[in-house]
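pasting for the record
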Amino acid sequence: MLIGVPAETLAGETRVAATPETVKKLVAQGHTVRVQSGAGVCASVTDAGFAAVGAEITDAAGAWGCDLVLKVRAPQESEAGLLRPGSTLVGMLNPFDATGLHRLAAAGVTAYALEAAPRTTRAQSMDVLSSQANIAGYKAVVMAADRYQRFFPMLMTAAGTVKAARVVILGVGVAGLQAIATAKRLGAVIEASDVRPSVKEQVESLGAKFIDVPYETAEEKEAAEGVGGYARPMPQSWLDRQKAEVAKRVAQADVVITTALIPGRAAPVLVTQEMVESMKPGSVIVDLAAAQGGNCPLTQPGQTVVHHGVTLVGETNLPALVAADASALYARNVLDFLKLIINPEGALHLNRDDDIVAACLVAHEGAVTRA
């Protein structure tokens, strides 16, 4: 069948949904792959690189008008009309954006939002949230090191000793764990906090200290365990104690990286204005939750601001700043998902009995299938 890979047009989006590695495999399966000219340039992939593995280089209409369209981000309003009714769209389509989903339904396409895949062992190879969060965690530390006006590691020199930077990481999911590992490689002293007690061992195995807040009730412990790999909102009693404990560490920190997100909700506030103002001048906060309001109320999405001598980085799309590797990992996630919706004869096939397919399906036959 015809598989299209349009260029991403959202401001700041540099990734591409396929790479020469994945295109080569799709062509080998007998598909025709049409890539919009320039789609991979910002991810260090030229048109010649795609053509060398058998892709056809086309214009926007050629890429959008295929049986199957592969995207990184959801189509913008002006692009939805380019989709052919009856075609299939795969990408990070934001399953919590009701307006966007209804737009896709109105376009008459079958649409799969990869972020909605369940966090199960079988779905790991197509877990786009994890593959991209891994990159975000790495890039957050690199950006913090760039803006922090001192060294990360301890140095003993003829001119005197330089103390290691103190880094506090709030939220220890995929991004948080990668941030710990990256900061450790740079020689920082690291403390980390999360509402799930199960991550303590992981934190310590990477060389960081876990900020422990004891649970005083069964309700607190049950909430902390989470559901489906995600944290649940914690009782206010525990949050109050955690806030006090974290505030002490933040005041001593040189760098704070916040990563806490709950799908479909505004990001929880972890670092208050008072905490920011307790930090030393020259300290840095990188807020990975900026796109959903931020874990700090002072964060300005898409901007870097200074408050009370503290630099707050509100970059909303860190994976796009590492576009080559981010695209490579994302394209492999997409390729693995396609195995579930393309049958052995090479045709599209909707199997609602497959839990991954059912979870990702957001639009079909003119209707939104996700509440």
